[in-house]
Specification:
This protein is an alpha/beta fold and about 325 residues long. Helices cover about 35% and strands about 10% of the residues. Strands 3-2-1-4-5-6-9 form a 7-stranded parallel beta sheet, with helices on both faces. Strands 7-8 form a two-stranded parallel sheet. Helix 1 packs across helix 7. The N terminus is likely disordered.
Length: about 325
């Protein structure tokens, strides 16, 4: 199968106010898979006695970053899909019923399907998170979703950006891979580029350090070799995000038409929908792929990202 990185486009069918796109365009498209640097990252080995099941639907999944901006709507949408029987969410601390309701609304009351796992996320090398994730997750999950990020990158340090956006997601992915998870849907950013550099040292979204971190985590996760590949979701500016200034929300309808299509804004609800649709397609495509063919690692942005969200919302409308 031909594997292509995304085309350009914008999401015009939902929520047209938002933040200015701050990312710099990266010219050529490229395949994921070249390992990027990461602190204390070793691959380990998966269970030699475990054979992944022949799944064609998302029956059981895991989420890292489920209480963040995109993560909240992602978990909510997963819980609304009755085909998803288990949603395993990794959290830093126990959540009260009120906190669950605040994060995921009425869907959080489905405690038979929502499984919370308290895991440590304070280490610099991610070793404790990897161990706890491997101990918590069941084998053979259909997909793992990664939406973890620093939230406001401009206010953090380079070391913390790397720890939260690269090291911890890679540790989680490595544990998921060891437990036989079939696919990963990974939230990164338009312009993700592991070769990017920075002259200013700024960690702001769209800057060299930021897009390098996103490129590094893409490459690290892809290099693990998930049976049904990795989908890197690369949005432009995120709308509906609590971290987006109100003034930017109002300006975006005027700014978007002047931006390259791949950099235009998208609402977080649609980002989550696209992440789910990408995982569904990874399983659907696997049924039509020869067993000897390598799994596809695909990055979606612009028009390809829009198409994913539209396809998902056509069958699972947003409430």
């Amino acid at each position: 199968k031909k594997m292509a990185f995304a085309l350009s486009g914008r999401l015009s069918f939902r929520h047209w106010a938002g933040a200015a796109a701050l990312t710099a365009a990266v010219g050529a498209t490229r395949m994921m898979g070249t390992p990027g640097p990461i602190a204390a990252c070793t691959l380990g080995s998966s269970s030699s006695s475990y054979t992944p099941p022949a799944l064609t639907a998302l029956t059981a999944v895991a989420v890292l970053g489920g209480t963040g901006q995109v993560g909240r709507t992602l978990v909510t949408q997963l819980l609304r899909d009755t085909q998803v029987q288990e949603v395993h969410v990794l959290v830093r601390s126990e959540l009260t019923p009120a906190a669950r309701n605040e994060a995921w609304g009425a869907a959080a009351s489905d405690t038979d399907r929502l499984r919370l796992h308290v895991v440590p996320m304070a280490s610099t090398d991610g070793a404790d998170l990897e161990a706890a994730t491997a101990a918590s997750l069941p084998e053979g999950l259909a997909a793992a979703f990664i939406t973890l990020g620093v939230g406001k990158p401009s206010t953090t340090t380079p070391a913390e950006l790397t720890r939260v956006d690269v090291t911890l997601p890679t540790a989680f992915a490595r544990a998921a891979w060891r437990k036989g998870t079939l696919h990963v849907s990974l939230l990164t950013s338009v312009g993700a580029d592991a070769t990017a550099t920075s002259w200013t040292g700024s960690t702001a979204a769209g800057g060299g350090l930021y897009v390098k971190a996103k490129g590094d985590v893409e490459n690290n996760v892809a290099a693990l070799g998930f049976p049904r590949g990795v989908s890197a979701i690369r949005p432009g500016a995120l709308l509906g995000n609590a971290n987006t200034p109100d003034v930017a929300e109002k300006l975006m309808p005027w700014i978007d038409p002047w931006l390259p299509k791949r950099m235009r804004s998208i609402h977080i609800d649609n980002v989550a929908s696209a992440m789910i649709e990408a995982a569904v397609r990874a399983h659907t495509n696997a049924a039509d792929t020869e067993e000897s063919e390598p799994a596809a690692n695909i990055s979606y942005e612009g028009e390809e990202l829009v198409a994913l969200a539209r396809a998902r919302t056509a069958t699972h409308p947003l409430e």
